[in-house]
């Protein structure tokens, strides 16, 4: 029995090898080619760069020690990031499941029992031990296409995670800039309030002395109360800005949350964004995700097509044993090897509809990718245009601020000498405050626009 069993196993192995060779020779590789080409242009290590160094880019863009600390902790405990990480892990597990279908499946079984008649109660024991082997040679490439689709989904989830991380870092940097801006606006409002308080004191004294009319004194009082209301509004705005920053960095000490007293300086790296705008678009993580969605849809179409072709499987089994005493007697074992092919003769158009649906999803993914490219390029160019406009306006505001400051000094001197009325001083003061407030907003807007442009352009490769 042993030689005959060895011959049967040998013949089965030869048949199995033949099926595998046929499968390898005829497997489609369209989806795999797209995925390999995409992997060659988007290294896996680059997808994890933000996760390894989450704060490096934006901290270098606006050098500020406090900002660097906030960026370093912004991703810790963030629920959206945690959900995206879980999605990556789930995609990795699905890829593992898809790859598991490539290998053989081995099963073991065993049973034992006893029986007896009711007349003599003579026990007859029985036992059986068996093993089975099954293997899908994947001749038409359904498993291969499924694996490629799972790979694309994994890379897609990684790209989405990296995109989300960069977006959170950008929002954190902008919230930090906004907190500093509101603090500066609050300081300006406080300074204006104190100035108008002093002006009101002088106006009251001059009104009581008969040097100015009641209307001038009333105007001074109105300006003072208006500045008080503005001060309260600025205080609220400063608290709201700090709450936003505290939420992003996961802190609760809103009142004591430290920020710099001046807006952070701008590094010189942003000057290279315009020169690489076209390449920067392709480097964006959302564009990578859309490209991978196309690859995944193509792999799904290949898998759907392959699933409509005949199914071929290989299986083998070995088992034996009649009683407990025969359980380990090789002469009682029987082996079998078989190959099976099956196909659906009529499905009422189901397979055709499934293929058409998969093709439609691929067309939709291509259309979405094309639209995403246009939107991303427009995003980059618009962000850079806004940045240039803000920088140009800041130059004009600097000149206006200097001129308004000189005019206020001269008008204050004239008022003290009695050569100008209070209305003239207040008019110049309002202009100065408006220009200074606009300059602070413009400085903040430049940094916000720079962050937007840096985010729109994608990470440096």
UniProtKB/TrEMBL annotation:
UniProt keyword annotations, A-Z: Signal
Q: Which PANTHER family match?
A: OUTER MEMBRANE CATION EFFLUX PROTEIN
**Signal sequence extent:** 1-31
Q: Name one GO molecular function term.
A: efflux transmembrane transporter activity
Task: Name the domain of life.
Answer: Bacteria
Q: Which SUPFAM superfamilies match?
A: Outer membrane efflux proteins (OEP) (SSF56954)
Xref: InterPro entries: MdtP/NodT-like (IPR010131), OMP_efflux (IPR003423)
Protein name, UniProt field: Membrane protein
State the PROSITE patterns in the record. Answer: PROKAR_LIPOPROTEIN
Zinc-finger as a keyword of this entry, yes or no, is no
Question: Which protein family is it in?
Answer: Belongs to the outer membrane factor (OMF) (TC 1.B.17) family.
